[in-house]
Design a protein that fits this description.
Layout: H1 3-32, H2 37-57, H3 60-78, H4 85-108, H5 117-125, H6 134-137, H7 165-189, H8 198-219, E1 220-222, H9 224-227, H10 230-241, E2 245-250, E3 255-257, H11 258-279, H12 283-288, E4 295-304, E5 307-314, H13 321-330, H14 336-339, H15 344-349, H16 372-380, E6 385-391, E7 395-403, E8 408-416, E9 419-424, E10 428-434, H17 436-442, E11 443-446, E12 449-454, E13 457-463, H18 464-468, E14 478-485, E15 488-494, E16 496-504, E17 518-523, E18 529-533, H19 535-542, H20 553-558, E19 566-570, E20 576-580, E21 584-591, E22 596-598, E23 601-606, E24 609-615, H21 616-620, E25 634-642, E26 645-650, E27 653-658, E28 666-667, E29 673-679, E30 682-687, H22 689-695
Parallel strand pairs: 2-4, 9-18, 13-15, 20-30, 24-26
Antiparallel strand pairs: 1-3, 4-5, 5-7, 6-7, 8-9, 8-16, 10-14, 11-12, 12-13, 14-15, 17-18, 19-20, 19-27, 21-25, 22-23, 23-24, 25-26, 28-29, 29-30
Helix pairs in contact: 1-2, 1-4, 2-3, 3-4, 3-5, 7-8, 10-11, 11-16
């Protein structure tokens, strides 16, 4: 075989595999819409093209097999037979067999000795006994030299060229080294703004940026190259377990780096398989539950803030957190005393623990307790994350977040304990510098954890020095980098923040790979290595929980809500109350001198509005007058959102933030109280903010 023949065969293999991927997608779609003549025509053309090229190349056994498939598709086009599940399965098997033969041709140069008689007979069997055998119509001659003559197939376009992925990987590595060299030159050029290196550096910076973007674009693949195969996979799985499942895929055109695309394959496969096997009920069970017999698995992808967000949801039976906890306790994964303290979110996280499964029986799909841990570990390796929400009887939603690329990215340089670190710029929302007075006024200590009030929002603080075991920052002021990573938002306390730069992220060594606060290492402009911080890992290590977010997709339609938590407060008379954290906007210390009276109501000029104040102690004690305020004192006030707008609740002090308590709430015994709950072994009254403002006539029109 000469080089021209080898090139023709390589082109045949590549184009045939691409066409067969489309063949699978079209067949599954055709099964749902058998009257779609355009889909049927595309399926026919794929098999016809393979057959014709095989004849030209001398692959006669594959030609006979393709001819049998072409006959069946021709009968479908003519209306002589009707498409059914059996025909679809046979044609899908045909596609799989052609792929197998192509693999053999690629590795050996020949098509092996299999004449595919059984599959040819199966395909012909759908046509009826009157059909002549394709093996008889196309007898298999002795093998001949492939591509002995004739004209090679014409390329679809002369404007594209196929590039080996290894070449792109090498180019990206070289661009990374070029970026590092450019950063080092930037350090030299910065010494003298008008020096001889200034103009060449600017030209180098521009050329490097354009080259970097060009290589990045060349490596981008539509995420549909991964997600499109799930139509076939779900169809086969559903048939195998006797279920009816429809697949909806959105955002297949979203581009992502090839390395990320490859890393997504296994996690998405496990989630889709679990949705079909665990999530979607049998048709009879769905009908009995008031659902349509056909279940839905939805996959959607979108760009979001420099990352790719992927959602995999189903409208099946959902996940019962209590059952997960029971299985975890029974299998020894979780201690019984720890199980009672788990929130619903933490309970759902147990599904990612290795060896844990809620499937009672072991099948060829699931029940062995493997799979879901692979989802998390695979995503961790590429800087991704996964979160789950579910409602029993309504469905389950998985949210996956992955970076667009793993190589070159903008970074922010930060300092802590005299050492320099880098953090991806996409994770840093803003930087806030507070002097001592500002820090004292806007940072509160809640049960040993510091909370910063940022423009009306409560932001948990993480001290980087504490996490790294470094010396604390000097002085009473604070430098806070507002970080959001893997849907966790918090303030990172650092010594100072340096310049922004571009970094080439290199993997950590085996000895340091398990440290959760580091994502890699990079070399900055002065040539000194710096560790790259993992924003999500820092949050997890510091115990930062995921903030409340509106769920989307199938589960959102089912009405699943996240736990907002409770803000526990003391009252001046020694009582204990709580308010839903989702209502809390800010924590303020209001100077007594700033409080004014309008009639019988206390108010405060608050920004561009007037804030009504409610003294919780007075309301709960049936209007008894509180003790006189001391001159110069400040009133601890929780600013809450209500149907009437913002309202200030004057309390004693903030004690803690806790998850919504699962203990049954007892009915309220007095006005303004929704009920009583047990928090840390103490009875705590849950305030009803709406009842408070209604009772005191604080409506929007008053």
């Amino acid at each position: 075989m000469d080089s021209n023949d080898a090139e023709i065969i390589e082109l045949f293999l590549e184009e045939s595999r691409e066409n067969l991927d489309q063949f699978d997608r079209d067949l599954v779609a055709l099964e749902a819409a058998p009257a779609d003549t355009e889909l049927l025509a595309r399926v026919f053309r794929t098999v016809h093209t393979v057959k014709g090229t095989c004849g030209f190349l001398g692959f006669t056994k594959l030609e006979a097999l393709s001819h049998a498939g072409e006959d069946l598709l021709g009968a479908l086009r003519a209306g002589d037979v009707a498409l059914d599940a059996g025909i679809t399965s046979s044609l899908l098997t045909l596609g799989d067999r052609i792929r197998t033969v192509l693999d053999v041709v690629e590795s050996t140069g020949t098509e092996a000795d299999d004449d595919h008689a059984a599959l040819i007979a199966e395909l012909e069997g759908h046509l009826g006994p009157q059909h002549a055998s394709a093996a008889d119509a196309y007898p298999v001659p002795a093998p001949s030299a492939p591509a002995a003559g004739g004209q090679p197939p014409t390329r679809a376009s002369e404007n594209t060229v196929r590039v080996d992925v290894g070449v792109l990987d090498t180019l990206m590595d070289l661009v990374g080294e070029l970026v590092l060299a450019r950063n080092q030159i930037a350090e030299i050029a910065a010494v003298d703004d008008d020096g001889p290196l200034t103009l060449p550096y600017r030209q180098l910076r521009l050329a490097t940026s354009e080259l970097q973007e060009g290589v990045r674009q060349a490596r981008l693949q539509p995420i549909g190259t991964v997600t499109s195969r799930f139509r076939r996979i779900v169809r086969d799985l559903a048939v195998g377990v006797g279920k009816q499942v429809r697949v909806e895929i959105e955002g297949e055109e979203v581009g992502v780096d090839k390395a990320i695309n490859e890393a997504l394959g296994d996690p998405l496969l496990h989630l889709v398989r679990n949705a079909v096997d665990h999530g979607i009920e049998a048709p009879a069970d769905r009908v009995a539950a008031g659902k349509p017999a056909e279940g839905t698995v939805r996959i959607s992808a979108m760009h979001s803030g420099g990352r790719v967000e992927i959602q995999v949801s189903d409208d099946g039976r959902g996940v019962d957190p209590a059952r997960l906890v029971d299985r975890a306790v029974a299998s020894g994964v979780l201690a019984p005393e720890a199980a009672t303290a788990l929130s619903e979110r933490d309970a759902l996280e147990l599904m990612f623990h290795p060896g844990l499964s809620t499937k009672e029986e072991v099948t060829n799909l699931s029940g062995r307790g493997v799979g879901m841990d692979v989802v998390r570990s695979s995503l961790d390796q590429v800087g991704g994350s996964v979160e789950v929400t579910s409602e029993p009887g309504r469905g389950t939603l998985f949210r996956i977040s992955v970076p667009l690329t793993l190589t070159i990215m903008p970074a922010v340089v930060i300092w802590c304990g005299g050492q320099r670190y880098a953090i991806p710029q996409i994770e840093v929302e803003e930087v806030v510098s507070l002097d001592a007075a500002q820090a004292a006024a806007s940072v509160d200590d809640v049960a040993g954890a510091r909370i910063y009030r940022l423009r009306g929002q409560l932001l948990p603080l993480v001290d980087l020095a504490t996490q790294l075991g470094a010396p604390p920052p000097e002085g009473d002021g604070l430098t806070i980098a507002v970080v959001e990573s893997a849907s966790k938002r918090y303030g990172l306390i650092v010594d100072r923040v340096g310049d922004m730069t571009e970094m080439v992220v290199k993997p950590l060594t085996k000895a340091t790979r398990g440290i959760p606060v580091f994502a890699g290492v990079t070399i900055l402009g002065d040539g000194v290595p710096s560790l790259v911080l993992d924003g999500a890992g820092l949050a997890t290590r510091a115990g930062i929980t995921t903030p409340t977010a509106e769920p989307t997709g199938t589960v959102a339609a089912a009405g699943v809500e996240n736990d907002p938590g409770l803000l526990v407060l003391s009252t001046p008379d020694g009582g204990r109350v709580a308010v839903e954290l989702g209502r809390v906007q800010r924590l303020e210390h209001v100077p007594v001198a700033s409080v004014e009276r309008v009639g019988r109501r206390e108010v405060l000029q608050y920004g561009d509005t007037i804030l009504p104040l409610l003294r919780v102690e007075q309301v709960l004690s049936n209007g008894l007058e509180p003790a006189p305020d001391e001159a110069g004192a400040a009133l601890p006030t929780v600013v809450c959102q209500s149907s009437a707008g913002l309202v200030g609740l004057v309390v004693g002090h903030v004690e803690d933030i806790v998850p919504t308590v699962a203990t049954p709430i007892r009915g309220g015994g007095r006005r303004g109280v929704a009920g009583s709950v047990v928090v840390d072994d103490r009875v705590t009254e849950l305030l009803d903010v709406e009842a408070l403002i209604a009772d005191l006539a604080l409506d929007a029109g008053s």
